[in-house]
């Protein structure tokens, strides 16, 4: 009886843990949808959660970009488990219906462009104000006769960046439209950290200038009054030491990795 009393609670814990793990699903090779996009449009094996909407809608001939992390969280909330083993950051959903041609021009268009194929161009799905952070749902793929010069080829180059100027809905997306967002402003009180060999230290400091992630910033130690150089690592945070060197190098070699996600 004592043995059973010990084993039974452990068995219940294991069974509960298994139940909480969620139903494993896999991303569909071709993700297409019509109208409101659901988890069933994205995953194979979604079961009862297949009808759960993800908060985006597709018209005929259109496409949209979803954040993989947000989709993964929504799946988990609805009892599904997606490992995302390949580390996808975005999921592109395309419409299952071709775009309808205007009735007056349908015949002429069909004859003139019977063998022509347009190019998919990344465009802004919503209007943005200066300083707005670009999210996955702000971008969509649109078919055009030819991609304009300077058009962005990868949504990852834009997501998490800040709009440099007002952007209208439908405009072709370009890396020239965005910049690294400012995460530290002059006179902000921030946390500066140092990490190396298992040692982690933090102190409060005052920013002497504004900076984006990966940019150097002068800060003042509020205890000693000493001014020293750090590297912005996130909203209200900066680092010094080896982590600062690595972050600065990443900002120079691959700025897209340092966008706000």
List the defining traits of the structure above.
globular, 261 residues, 5 helices, five-stranded mixed barrel, three-stranded mixed beta sheet, alpha+beta, 3 domains, SH3 type barrels, Type Iii Antifreeze Protein Isoform Hplc 12
Q: Helix and strand succession? A: HEEEEHEEEHEEHEEEEEEEEEEEH
How many strands?
Answer: 20
The total count of helices amounts to 5
* Computed structural class: alpha+beta
Overall mean pLDDT: 79
Instruction: Examine the secondary-structure arrangement and name the CATH architecture of the largest domain.
Output: Roll
Quaternary state reads: single chain
In whole angstroms, the N-to-C terminal distance is: 54 Å
Show unreliable segments.
1-20, 100-116
| Count of domains | 3
* Strand order, largest beta sheet: 15-16-18-19-20
Q: How much strand content do the residues show?
A: 25-35%
- Overall CATH class of the largest domain: Mainly Beta
CATH topology of the largest domain: SH3 type barrels
From the alpha carbons, calculate the radius of gyration and give it in angstroms: 24 Å
The rough form would be described as globular
Share of residues in helices: 10-25%
Major sheet details = 5 strands, mixed, barrel
